[in-house]
């Protein structure tokens, strides 16, 4: 992207996106307006889309397959370059003190937030499966979850625009002769939380993964999230919490088992 320098710091040349606009899909919200003018928001989205989105695999929201998606090749160099362009687009100097290392830190953070693509549920469970003669519920509650949401632009692979903050996941299952090491449930949750997500899909994927690893008689996953896209911008409602659940087997079909799960979940709940 071409830049020119003025006394007020680096500014973007108006024609800098003209040759790259064709790279975005027709339906993408990242294309320039019909007037040919681009806001800082347009520019930020455009450079992010070019440098990063091609590295993220298309999500499979309707697939029942829980095998890990193809790991994206997230180039730290490309992400850092995109971050520098974004800093320029908002009118700042990426070379000034305090910002010089920001692009690299941003790239490292994005790689960390999306490391779940490179993890496998069978590897993280690490064969920590033990035989047991019990069909009593096992519940691990209040698992802290932080994730980057892909907002409402999944099909266009646009930049992430939401963060799940202060999220709690509760996982329960009815054993079928086997139990999983307790620490492995949060690890499985992390595999899917560290991807570009929507809350509904994240909840479903964790339940499916536990089914695949353990083959229990039933699984329940409940996720409570505060979405920063509803707090920091948009409707700006700070007290909203979104709840989703995924139930399978006995915990879906047997009302007594389901009631037992919710009773145990609420018992001793932190006030």
Q: Keywords for this structure?
A:
271 residues; alpha+beta; GTP Cyclohydrolase I, domain 2; two-stranded antiparallel ribbon; elongated; disordered N terminus
Q: How many separate domains make up the residues?
A: 2
Structural class, by secondary structure, is alpha+beta
Which strand order do you get reading across the main beta sheet?
7-4-5-8-9
CATH-defined fold name of the largest domain: GTP Cyclohydrolase I, domain 2
Q: Into which percent range does the helicity of residues fall?
A: 25-40%
Under CATH, the homologous superfamily of the largest domain reads GTP cyclohydrolase I, C-terminal domain/NADPH-dependent 7-cyano-7-deazaguanine reductase, N-terminal domain
Number of strands: 9
Q: Architecture of the largest domain, CATH level 2?
A: 2-Layer Sandwich
Mean pLDDT: 74
Quick one: CATH class of the largest domain? Alpha Beta
Query: How big a fraction of the residues is strand?
Result: 15-25%
Helix/strand order: EEHHHHEEEEHEHEHEHH
Our Rg estimate from Cα atoms comes to 22 Å
Report the total helices: 9
Report how far apart the termini are: 52 Å
Cα shape: elongated
* Poorly predicted runs: 1-37, 54-68, 152-161
Describe this structure in words.
Keywords: Folate biosynthesis, GTP-binding, Hydrolase, Nucleotide-binding. Pathway: Cofactor biosynthesis; 7,8-dihydroneopterin triphosphate biosynthesis; 7,8-dihydroneopterin triphosphate from GTP: step 1/1. Helices cover 33% and strands 22% of the residues. The chain is elongated and about 65 Å long. Strand 1 and strand 2 (9-12) form a beta hairpin. The strands form 3 sheets. The chain has a 5-stranded mixed sheet with strand order 7-4-5-8-9, with helices on both faces. A two-stranded antiparallel sheet has the order 1-2. Mean pLDDT is 74; it is low at 1-37, 54-68 and 152-161. It has helices at residues 40-52, 76-89, 102-113, 121-125, 184-193, 199-214, 228-231, 250-253, 255-266, and strands at 3-6, 9-12, 129-131, 138-149, 162-174, 178-180, 196-197, 218-227, 242-249. The chain is an alpha+beta fold. It has 2 domains: 3-115, no CATH class; 126-266, GTP cyclohydrolase I, C-terminal domain/NADPH-dependent 7-cyano-7-deazaguanine reductase, N-terminal domain (GTP Cyclohydrolase I, domain 2). The chain has 9 helices and 9 strands. Helix 1 (40-52) runs antiparallel to helix 2 and helix 2 crosses helix 3 (102-113).
């Amino acid at each position: 992207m071409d830049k020119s320098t003025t006394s007020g710091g680096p500014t973007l040349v108006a024609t800098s996106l003209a040759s790259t606009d064709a790279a975005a899909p027709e339906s993408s919200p990242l294309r320039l307006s019909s007037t040919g003018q681009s806001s800082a928001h347009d520019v930020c989205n455009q450079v992010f889309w070019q440098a990063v989105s091609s590295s993220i695999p298309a999500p499979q929201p309707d697939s029942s397959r829980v095998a890990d998606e193809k790991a994206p090749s997230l180039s730290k160099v490309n992400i850092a370059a995109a971050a520098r362009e974004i800093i320029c687009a908002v009118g700042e100097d990426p070379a000034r003190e305090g910002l010089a290392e920001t692009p690299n830190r941003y790239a490292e953070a994005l790689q960390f937030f999306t490391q779940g693509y490179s993890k496998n549920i069978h590897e993280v469970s690490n064969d920590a499966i033990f035989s047991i003669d019990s069909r009593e519920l096992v519940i691990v509650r209040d698992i802290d979850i932080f994730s980057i949401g892909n907002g409402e632009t999944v099909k266009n692979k646009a930049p992430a625009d939401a963060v799940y903050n202060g999220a709690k996941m509760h996982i329960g299952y009815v054993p079928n002769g086997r139990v999983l090491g307790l620490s492995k449930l949060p690890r499985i949750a992390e595999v899917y939380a560290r991807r570009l997500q929507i809350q509904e899909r994240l909840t479903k994927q964790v339940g499916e993964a536990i089914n695949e690893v353990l083959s229990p008689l039933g699984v329940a996953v409940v996720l409570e999230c505060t979405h920063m896209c509803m707090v920091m911008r948009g409707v700006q409602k700070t007290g909203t919490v979104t709840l989703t659940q995924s139930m399978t087997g006995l915990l879906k079909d047997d009302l007594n088992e389901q009631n037992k799960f919710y009773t145990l979940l609420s018992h001793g709940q932190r006030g």
